[in-house]
Design goal:
The protein is of the alpha/beta class. It contains seven helices and seven strands, in the order αααβαββαβαβαββ. Strands 3-2-1-4-5-7-6 form a seven-stranded mixed sheet, sandwiched between helices.
């Protein structure tokens, strides 16, 4: 089957992307790892010994980076609906983190402790229709915030991908209500034509809950 013009353009862009080339050289599973590294270089939100939960982790580049930065003695729990090849120092849970069974497994892996940081690079399968894609993307961000509110220690943080558009400012307001500071980040590794950005919330104010109401 012949490729469409848009798919050919994407393939050319992908193959010429310097971050794609670097990811192969550095052993990262995707170019997304450099987005996390750029944010880390600026904000230093990951420190050795931290307990981190990575949502929508597959194929695993954010988990790779976070596990490296949290070593030694860090704990990294990765969650995704898709399977993910093992990563040293990473505990993987395959499942939907919005389901009670998967949430219970996350709590079980935490073993009574709280998380210091929740990270999420999740995005929905894009249809190309903004009126469909934007609500789906914001729903994922809301789910990440809901889980963070259940498992974060006071003072903890949340790094979550959002897309500029409907619902984004309301979501930012929700973060500001629950965290001391909220920063917007657009790493250079994020393609310029993409309207994705990252919100980094720190200083969690709430008391975490161990189970759904």
């Amino acid at each position: 089957m012949s490729r469409s013009k848009s798919s050919k353009r994407w393939l050319r862009e992908h193959l010429s992307d310097p971050h794609v080339k670097r990811s192969r050289e550095d052993g990262y599973r995707s170019r997304a790892g450099y987005k996390l590294r750029e944010i880390q270089q600026r904000d230093r939100m990951i420190r050795p010994g931290m307990t981190i939960v990575d949502l929508g982790a597959a194929p695993g580049s954010w988990s790779q980076v976070a596990a490296e930065l949290a070593a030694p003695n860090g704990k990294l729990i990765a969650v995704d609906l898709l399977s993910m090849a093992p990563i040293p120092g990473v505990e993987f849970i395959q499942g939907d983190f919005s389901d009670r069974t998967t949430l219970d497994e996350v709590l079980n892996r935490l073993a009574g402790a709280s998380a210091d940081l929740v990270i999420s690079d999740m995005a929905p399968n894009m249809s190309g229709v903004k009126g469909i894609d934007q609500p789906r993307a914001m729903a994922l961000a809301e789910l990440a915030l809901d889980l963070a509110a259940r498992i974060l220690a006071p003072g903890g943080g949340l790094l979550v991908k959002v897309f500029q558009g409907a619902g984004c400012e309301e979501f930012r307001a929700s973060l500001k209500a629950g965290f001391a500071t909220v920063k917007t980040r657009k790493p250079e590794a994020s393609r310029a034509r993409s309207n994705e950005m990252y919100l980094l919330a720190s200083g969690f104010r709430g008391q975490n809950r161990e189970s759904p109401d």
